[in-house]
Amino acid sequence: MKIELYINASPFFKGLSEAHHNELSKICMLKQVKKRDYLFHEGDKGNSMFLLVAGNVQLHKNTEDGREVVIRMIKPGDVFAEVVLFEKERYPVSARAVTNADVLVFGKEGIHRLLAEEDFRNDFIALLMAKQRYLAERIQELTTKDVEHRFFTFLRSQYGEKETITTPLSKKDIAAAIGTTPESLSRLILRLTDDKIIDWQGKKIRILSDPWKWLE
To answer: CA-CA distance, 37 to 80, in Å (whole number)?
Structure first.
C-alpha cells in the first residue's frame, strides 16, 4: 500500500487511473541508495526506470575531457530513465544520489507488459510527451537565462515559492544543477546577500525580497 501511495503522489503519474496506479505498484520495488552511490552509469544496459521517493539524485554526462555536465537534478516525485523503455538500450547519462535517497525501481519487462494494454499505453505516452516538453523548456532555460534566473528557478522548482528553504544539497551540487561553477555561484550569493535578497546560513536559505515575480 505504501508503494501505491508514492505512485499516487507523483506528478508524472497523475494522468493515470487508480487501476493503473495499482498495476504499477505490483511491478516495482523500493530501493535505498546511500549518498554518492550510483543507481547506474552512462553506458550501462538500461533495464529499469525509476521514481524518486525521497532525497535527491543528479543526472550527469561525462565529457571527453573528463568533466561532468549535470543534465538534471531529480526531486521526490520525479520519474527518470524512462528513455530506456523505448529509445535507448543503454542509459545515456549517469545517476548518482547527492543525498541518501529512496527510489522505486520499475523493471523494463513489467512496464512493457502494461504497455500491451491500449488504455495504459495511450495514457503513458501522453505522460512522456509532457515530460519531453518540460525537458525542451529546461534546455532553453540553460542556454538563454542568466545564472540568477536559473538559481531562483531551481529553488522554485525544487522547493516552491517559500520564504525559508531548507536544502540538503551542497552549494557545489546546486551550482552543477544550474549549469554554473561553484565560484560563480559563490559570487552570486555574495551579491544577493549584499542586496538583501537572500540570507544563506548553513542549510537554510531565507528569501528576503520577492524574486519569484521576475521569473516569468
So the answer is: 16
